Amino acid sequence: MVFTFQNLLIVLKKMRIRMKSDILKELDRSSKIYLVSHINPDGDSIGSLLAFGKSLKHKYGEKVILLKSDKIPDTFKFLNNMNYLSDLQILKAIDDNSTLITLDCGDLNRIGAVNDSIKNFKSIINIDHHKSNNLFGKINIVDSDASSTSEIIFKLLKDNSLLIDKDIAEALYTGISSDTGSFKYESTDANTHRIASELLEYNIDKSKIIFYLYQNRSIETTNIFIEAIKKIEFHYHNKIGITIITKNMMKEANASVSDIDGIVEFIRDTENIEIACVIKEIDINKYKVSLRSKSYLDVSQIATHFNGGGHKKAAGMVVEGNVEKIKYKLLQLINKKLR
User: For the DHHA1 domain, which residue ranges apply (predicted)?
Assistant: First the structure.
């Protein structure tokens, strides 16, 4: 463990995660505790936010505030305690001794408009599992070997005798299941399964979680899938699959950002594909790129070329420029790493 005047760094690698007394002191002394997860939220960001937020509310009461950094996808609205989420207008009056806890965010850009108020917080506690995390907090709890941020939160709660009830267990199970692709990804290990088993002991409704996560695709999602799949291009002996989703395609399908979730995995799961790319237009000459690999290629290395990040087999970035030039550069970089 490394200590500096500006930064207390806790980087956790294959070890039991404990909320050290320094963190408890930070929360105890805070007049307000704000929690936020990343924009374009997924199951892990929402699950860890709701779970940790409810547990901290049980300990600290009304001084705990959960922030809604972005619209919540309909997929996750079955989770309880959504009413805890506050709109960002609440940040207009931040107490001097307030702490911000960020969840599942590799850097501060991921917290969206909350970053505009970042200087008003006395301290930041950064909890994440992305290896590209840039350790921006006063206190950083970053375990890149964890399957998800929800897994880290479970360990924090359990190791420190903080509240875990049915709602919290359901949120954490949702986060772990969604971030491991229903326990299929390489990040899933024996410890992940042990945690999932413990969460099931809280009598959570696993069938309900499976239904909403995997068996309830909207018509809009299906329509944008069809259009994106029509435009897939295969390159380098079918080892790369890539598609571009334009704003016009989204409009015609009446699709939202969350409706394109799963397209990049669909491409990756095609025979012979090693890496899948989805390039989504988010503004004029501005694109969000999602990358997935199947076996050996580290897509986080590709993402870092564009100031992005992520994991070995799942990464992303936002890139500005002409889309055909972006695609060409991507293909050139990937080709150098293919076997």
Answer: 249-334
